[in-house]
């Protein structure tokens, strides 16, 4: 009987001990970073009077370096001719193209319409050639610094109809 009481007491202590709060544990840290941009004509450089708008949303997995972007746009004044991520560029500063939505390998892009979507996935590391002078690591640094923007070009606005600065959330 005494052995049974000891066994039950040890088991109870183990159960209660495992249920108690341990202050030395830490909450898991997310390795997914989200980026967003609201694209408008007013944000273009130079600004234009379009009522078109769009949304750029992306995630970057900082463990795998997988960058996934999704874009929606509508209300443009004419058909889309192209779209890009540009950088390095602060707000209201134009810069060269980094990712071309129309030709990025494996990406989808609503070309030749006034409303549509884009989607793409890229690995952002030193082995990924983004442009002749930029690799994935460089683009990742620009994204974290807020020095990139997304824009959509149209027939009526070949320099860009809508634009938005891509910012970490």
What features would you describe in this structure?
This protein is an alpha+beta fold and 169 residues long. The protein has one domain (31-168): Sandwich (Immunoglobulin-like). It is 17% helix and 40% strand. It contains 2 helices and 11 strands. The chain has helices at 2-19, 136-145; strands at residues 32-40, 53-61, 66-74, 80-86, 97-100, 108-109, 116-123, 129-131, 134-135, 148-154, 162-168. A hairpin with a 4-residue loop joins strand 2 and strand 3. 34% of the residues are buried.
Topology:
Elements: H1 2-19, E1 32-40, E2 53-61, E3 66-74, E4 80-86, E5 97-100, E6 108-109, E7 116-123, E8 129-131, E9 134-135, H2 136-145, E10 148-154, E11 162-168
Antiparallel strand pairs: 1-2, 1-11, 2-3, 3-7, 4-5, 4-10, 6-7, 8-9, 10-11
H-E string = HEEEEEEEEEHEE
Q: Looking at the structure, what is the overall shape?
A: globular
% residues in beta strands: 35-45%
- Cα-atom Rg, whole angstroms? 24 Å
What is the CATH topology classification name? Immunoglobulin-like
Strand order, largest beta sheet: 5-4-10-11-1-2-3-7-6
Distance between the termini: 62 Å
Average pLDDT score: 88
Whole-number tally of structural domains: 1
Number of strands: 11
Spans with pLDDT under 50 lasting ≥5 residues?
A: 5-20
The largest sheet is: 9 strands, antiparallel
* CATH classification class: Mainly Beta
What is the overall number of helices?
2
What would you call the structural class? alpha+beta
Assign the CATH architecture: Sandwich
Helix fraction?
Answer: 10-25%
